[in-house]
Amino acid sequence: MAIRRVRGIVLRLVRRRSAAIAVGLALAAPSAWVEFSGRFDSPWQQGLALIVGATGLAILWTGLTGASPDWIDDGRQG
Q: In whole angstroms, what is the distance from residue 19 CA to residue 71 CA?
C-alpha cells in the first residue's frame, strides 16, 4: 500500500513542472556534493547518494521536458 502511495505522489509531482524542477534539484544537489566532495568513504552512503541523485535527475529532466504520453495514437484502425 505504501508503494502505491509513493507512486501516486511521484506521478502527481511530475505533472507540476516547477515543483518537479525544484524537487529534482533538491535531490540532485546534495547527492552530487556527497559524491564529489570525497568526505564520505562509506559504500552505503555513496550508494544512497547515487540512488537519490539518479532519482533527482530523472525528476528534474521530466520537469524540464514535460511528461511523455503513455501511448501515441497514429489514427490507424485495425
A: 24
